[in-house]
Amino acid sequence: MQKVNAKQYANYLKVCYQKKQPLFIQGGPGIGKSQVPRQVFREVAENKNLEFVQWDKTSKDMKDTMEHNPEKYFVFCDQRLSQMDSTDLRGIPNMNADKLEPMPPSWVVYFCNPKAQGVIFFDEINLAPPVVAGSAYQIILDRSMADMKLGDNVYLIGAGNRAEDKAFTFEMSLPLKDRFCEMELYPDAESWTEWAASNKINPHLIAFINWKESYLYRMSETGQDKATTPRGIERASILIGDSEITDPEVTMLTSISVGEAFSTEFQAYVKYFSKLDWNLIYREPITVKEFDVSQMFAVSGGLAEHFIKDNGKFEDVITVVDEMPAEFAVMALRIMRDSNRTAFKRKGMKSKKFSKEVAPKLGKFVI
Prior knowledge:
18 helices
């Protein structure tokens, strides 16, 4: 199976959507299999001038409104097959009808409206028991359910874990697999860094992952420690919030989010950061030239944090960036850029190092 990172996943998903070819994405837990489609189709909705709606986060009143005006909405519907039984797809029999007819769930009825536009995302498809997966065949293979046909502008995606993830998967049948294009998503620090900065993940966690890339996705060999996944890192960032990373409480917050191994290594990063003299760094930026690699990662995270907390204030930060080795300048500026593109576009080009060394490395994604 072809392996892709998050950025490639997004690009190929767009192609499959445009060509109306269903896609199955496989990969470990918490690495973005469902997060990437949400972002991609939010952009699709914006380009179509439609309101993006997530079915499972929508009120009943809103759903009633959508049913009467489906042409105004682009609906993303996440359905976990592993949590269903067969009647959740086909519906229960209508015993009051003159003849036996199924009463399908509301989301099936909605997507069978010819004017409906959106995506049905069948998550955990290979965790579902065969009898449930069998009930999904009709909607995936034939684009129909309960004697109704899916709308032509409804797209289908499937996702699942791998057997090696200890997820108790079932083997997908050949007819079902043959209906999909197939890819396997793997965690990639560069793609994740761009996503993380734009989604307000703590810049120190981002800098740490760039220092210790293996901690972006790490399974415990013994099963005793909590696994580390991009989803867990996001959870740690939420828990940390506005706290200083030198706060002793952060150790516990990272440990319960992404495991003790991650937390222990992250504290090594925090130790380097805590010893930085920022007054000296800003007064004499040239001093960073004497820092070792570990210190430079901490400087990069600190500069990004200052840029974010100062709402895009760039003048002091850039004097330090201009003295940093290009690879660290690139990392720091990427985090700044993706966290606040408006401020970065307005001020980022003032850097000597940016224009001479960093911009070529950032390539077409500079602004």
